[in-house]
Design brief:
single chain; alpha+beta; Fructose-1,6-Bisphosphatase, Chain A, domain 1; D-Maltodextrin-Binding Protein, domain 2; 2 domains; 14 strands; 37% helix
Length: 275
């Protein structure tokens, strides 16, 4: 098993660490979510826009992850959505403490804790843990992807018109309008379109065959670091920001190989690069 010069035992150790810490953070997040369902509240702030929210639970989750990784993997840097950081020369942990914060805040169950180990900016192991359902999505580079220990394989739709496409929208209202127009143009080219509100869970859904493809502009490294590896190791064709000028420099794309080329062409023809 190859993984950017890392042996199989090390890759599995990284994956197990990501899963272990992800489960611990997910327990914290789920407890807070359950309190909110019972009438409790949580402190909320905004970031890039009024619709781009961060809660005290996001920060508590990331702090827990940083503390646990510091004990289990001392000296390895962490790049997190809330606490920042930089990629290091060896293993760097890339963390999204709650991917789908708006869903979390509204009481919807579709959010996750995402933790990936990257080397030279390439994901080699990762875990996406859903606090409410308890699902654990894991992957190691060159070694496969799993959902709760069951190995995953992407779907194989016969043609694009029979494909279910997941999409995501920006926090910027101006860009969201352009993304909505792109989605409207794509509706006639695919079976249907879904908007779940968590990029990591959409990418994992591609891995499980629950979606046939996923596309979104403007994702950050922590949004895709673990889940894109899950999709890729399940057999999906994956393009990360910077990989596809015809789709836009900040585009993330994942699709079942049977429709990947046609989906990419349809998105490009629909003006994805201008969104």
């Amino acid at each position: 098993m190859a993984g950017v010069g890392v042996d199989e035992a090390t890759l599995n150790d990284l994956k197990n660490t990501a899963e272990q810490v992800g489960v611990e953070a997910a327990h914290l997040v789920r407890s807070a979510w359950m309190r909110m369902q019972s009438g409790g509240s949580v402190a909320v702030d905004t970031k890039s826009a009024e619709t781009d929210v961060v809660t005290a639970v996001d920060r508590e989750s990331e702090e827990l992850v940083r503390t646990r990784l510091g004990r289990l993997r001392p000296g390895e840097p962490v790049l997190g959505e809330e606490g920042g950081g930089e990629l290091g020369g060896g293993v760097t942990w890339v963390v999204d403490p709650i991917d789908g914060t708006v869903n979390f805040l509204y009481g919807l169950p579709d959010f996750a804790v995402s933790i990936a180990a990257q080397i030279d900016g390439v994901s080699v192991a990762g875990a996406v843990v859903e606090p409410v359902s308890g699902r654990r999505w894991t992957a190691v580079r060159g070694g496969g992807a799993w959902l709760d220990g069951r190995q995953l394989t992407v779907s194989a739709p016969e043609r694009l018109e029979l494909s279910l496409l997941g999409i995501g929208f920006s926090y910027s209202q101006e860009r969201r309008v352009r993304q909505g127009a792109l989605a409207a143009r794509m509706v006639s080219r695919v079976r249907d379109v879904r908007r779940r509100g968590s990029a990591s869970l959409d990418l994992c859904a591609v891995a499980a065959g629950w979606l046939d493809g996923f596309f979104e502009h403007g994702l950050h490294r922590w949004d895709w670091a673990a889940a894109a590896l899950v999709a890729q190791e399940a057999g999906a064709t994956v393009l990360l920001p910077g990989d596809a000028a015809d789709l836009g420099e900040d585009a993330t794309f994942a699709a079942a190989p049977s429709v990947a080329a046609d989906l990419r062409a349809a998105l490009a023809a629909s003006g994805a690069a201008e969104v």
